[in-house]
Description:
- With 512 residues, the chain is α+β, with helices and mostly antiparallel strands.
- The chain is built from 14 helices and 17 strands.
- Strands 6, 7, 8, 9, 10 and 11 form a 6-stranded antiparallel sheet that branches.
- Helix 3 (42-54) crosses helix 6 and helix 7 (266-288) packs antiparallel against helix 10.
Amino acid sequence: MFTNLLDNLTMRVSNFILQGVHSRMTDREFLEKEIQKWEGSPKRIMQIKGFLYYGGDHDILTRKRTMIGNDGKLEVVDNLPNNHIIDNQYGKLVNQKTNYLLGQPVAVHGDNEQYVKLLQKVFNRRFQRTLKNCGKASYNGGIAWLYPYYTEEGEFAFRMFPAYEVLPFWKDSEHTMLDFFVRMYIVIGYQGTMPELIKKVEVYDLDGVHKFIYDHGSLIPDIVNGEQADVPHVTMVDSQGNVTGFNWSRIPLIPVKCNSDEIPLLKRVKSLQDGINVMLSDFENNMQEDARNTILVLKNYDGTNLGEFRNNLATYGAVKVRNDDSAKGGVETLEITVNADNYKAIVEIFKKALIENGMGYDAKDDRLSGNPNQMNIQSMYSDIDNDADDTETEFQAAFDDILWFVNAHLANTGKGDFEGEEVEIIFNRDVLVNESETIDNCQKSMDILSLETILSIHPWVNDVQEELDRLEEQKQKEQEEFEKQYNPFNQLGQAVAPDNDKGGGLNGKEET
């Protein structure tokens, strides 16, 4: 019996494998399924919402006023005020965290001065701007991407891809090495004279870039004006018009994460941001509902329905009532007061919770009002500093990949082989400090710390090496002035009489 069960199981497994071989998806079919699954996934939707919320496009904009209908279910009411107030604390938080870590340019330090100067040319102001935008995009999407390329002028540079454009396929579960990736973006094309949105798809692997158009779930090779759908990673045109291309030996995409779990910042604070918007919108709605702030109680109204009553009240400012034997007519009111303090208290609670959950800081913190010493400032910055530590760890790992592509560029262009050269990337955090207290501590440390260490702490020094060079230059000039002033012999070997007001030295008589 056991043998029969084993034979049946073996036959079922064999049939399953055989069916799998015959029904195996092609690479294109696999990509079509993966793109379809990724395009509407909750993760990508949250990434898109992060960018929308940063730009002020919040869910409150689609909110409708509702009431309980006759059947007990909610129904939309169109004749009530429906304000959409947005207090974009999320956008403020993203800017705050980005500027804290990336507000100042990153510095490059290393023993090889030639290598450092070449890196500084690559990490120019354009790169610093791209890096800052990448940091902002990583907070909005949980991850952002840097793509190395050459501009039309032949300059080596990086550009940023937002999270919602890239579908990565990782080699490892820690998401550190890419096998290949898909980029999908939208362009505006024309069907005849009518504009239409076209979804472009680019698949990057070690063999190059494969271009498609994604149309109703199908990938169609993107062949425009006779151009090939498969091209190298890099295509360059020289001054004679000759086209050359090459592929990187790595997948040309660098992940830049705001945290190791790739969680968008919005996911931590969305409910609080929505709560702030709802409270502010409801407060304005209630303030505008003048007629409903006062409930009218009708007695023996001389009319047919409440709609006619409201119309007469709005048109004539008066209504007709009647007295009869059964009832006496009249209009009474019940006042409803909107308590602004309640809304204010709730909004303040939401704002404070948003700052704490988003790990930011409150620039209007009470700790800065009385005695803003360095301990109070550090306490206020503790949350954002801890979060910045995690983000900097991910950015430092990204710089390892960035330097690999920079080194490959330098080697390809004949500027030198710097593989294995050690450099340090320093993030200059934009921290509020008590300058007087810090400078006083620097002065007190002159006898126990090196000048370089003190300068690195001084709040007025941005570049330590540059400041050391300035001090050396200043010292040299002072030495030259001193020698010129107090040297008793001029170039002819004759005594020089210094100015009387400067004091000291020889008297005014010549000596041979």
